[in-house]
Amino acid sequence: MRTFDEIVIYGGGSVGLALAALLQGSSDVPVRLYGRGLTAEAVRASGIRVKGLREGTYHVPVMADREPISSRSCLLVCTKAYDLKTVIPQIAGKVTAWPPMIFLQNGFAILDHVYLIMKNCSLPFEPLKAVRAVISLGAEKTGHNEVALHGLGAVYLQESQWSRDLEIAFAAVGLPCEITPDIEKREAVKGVINSILNPLTALYSVRSGELWRQAGVEERMEALIAEDVAVLSSRGMLMEERELLSALRQIASDTAGNVTSMLQDTRSGRETEIEFFNGTLISRAHERGLAVPENERLYREIIVHSGRKDQSHADHQ
User: How does pLDDT run across 111-165, given as a tens digit for each residue?
Assistant: First the structure.
């Protein structure tokens, strides 16, 4: 028997819409979407319209705002990292016991952040119900219920009692999935890539595949990676600079037509996730007495470029 009865996609952003459509279209697991506002209205009325790799319209049931969630549901939490402080208490208010929650946010130390929030909720703290997943999915939200799918990368799942059934569901929709005991390394690799690819594409206002055409950008990437490797090494996580640069190139190539989430955010005037990318790297560097001037420069540039100085939660000067 499956370890859950349904998958609930929690969040109607680009990744949430893409996964809801993919899973509804190809997996035999029932899928529902929890979204709000105009996104929820549009999906209810017209389904999710996908362009790019998987053309089509997918009719996914949308949960009502006050509808409870069963503990036999498996939640794929697809919101922004900075929204978790409100999303997790929302989930706690819809359940009588924590359901399994798979966190797909970009950034470093996501589960540490999740645990702190769960501990302040009314439900008993159950850390095993929070599972980390790292996903490479080139998805761009182009309308309230529309998403352009530019690339399908791998999914890495933390080991858990629900991971095998999720692996089967992801594989059914064409997402290569690997259950790994070393999710921290996968998070770190993706975190380094996000901390370079996302802010640089936002600053240059280019798609992922166009980034290498910018003058001097590769030298800047190499300098950032050198700093990141030093920070990770100081925490006992050894990585090769060439390995990370190769992984960065591969993801950019696989999602060449993608508009990164940070570029989407800066174009829309939304808060970015820079604090969970470079902000976290800078904080960790300061804890170890390491200098990371390239990361600090990039961090400041994004704060200025986004025009949202209110999002700077730490002193990274």
Answer: 999 999 999 999 999 999 999 999 988 899 999 999 999 888 889 999 999 999 9
What distance in Å separates the CA atoms of residue 25 and residue 146, rounded to the nearest whole number?
A: 15
Chain centroid, CA 11 distance in Å: 11
d(CA 157, CA 108): 15
DSSP assignment string, 188-223 = HHHHHHHHHHHHHHHHHT--GGGGGGSTTHHHHHHH
47 and 160 belong to one structural domain:
yes
What is the distance between the alpha carbons of residues 265 and 311, in angstroms, rounded to a whole number? Answer: 13
Same-domain status, 188 and 114:
no
Amino acid at site 250 = Q
CB 201 within 8 A of CB 262: yes
Residues 21 and 145 in one domain: yes
